[in-house]
């Protein structure tokens, strides 16, 4: 019964309430791949220890594009790996939902519904980040690159969004202040836009 899930999902202590989810003692996870990797690590069936670095997904190609950095990790402790796995998949969901909106011929009709749910999505990310400097913890991981890309796009889409203040704004500033990121963003290789290809209804030029 869908109403059972609606009534219970906020009571489970999940960072990003969704189906499927796993509760294994103190461990509470969502996202299929994150759950799979956790189970695999628990039973010594995973040698990778984390995810692969993401590739670029649009014209500006910030993530995995023209920027070369020392390889950030996928987390060191089990908790960090769980956070990386959950957030990677959650951010990819957010990215795909935004892309589907921007490429949809009914963009203007669908935009209000997207804007209505955006504050809650950003609040979840804000709570997940908390007082940490980076999303996994004290060290930069590859999901911080994904997070920057997703949050920067939303900042461009809704410049005055109040949910993009506070710790999320501090995260964006901290990421942009990284030496190699800062140098790259000042170079002629960096493109702030377009984010999407020309057939998109937003940020296509």
From TrEMBL:
InterPro entries: Glutathione-S-Trfase_C-like, Glutathione-S-Trfase_C_sf, Glutathione_S-Trfase_N, GST_C, GST_superfamily, Thioredoxin-like_sf. The gene is Gstm2. Gene3D superfamilies: 1.20.1050.130. It comes from Brachypodius melanocephalos. This is glutathione transferase. Keywords: Transferase. One of its GO terms (biological process) is glutathione metabolic process. It is an enzyme of class 2 (transferase). PANTHER family: GLUTATHIONE S-TRANSFERASE (PTHR11571), GLUTATHIONE S-TRANSFERASE MU 3 (PTHR11571:SF133). One of its GO terms (molecular function) is glutathione transferase activity. Residues 52-79 are annotated as: Disordered. Pfam families: GST_C, GST_N.
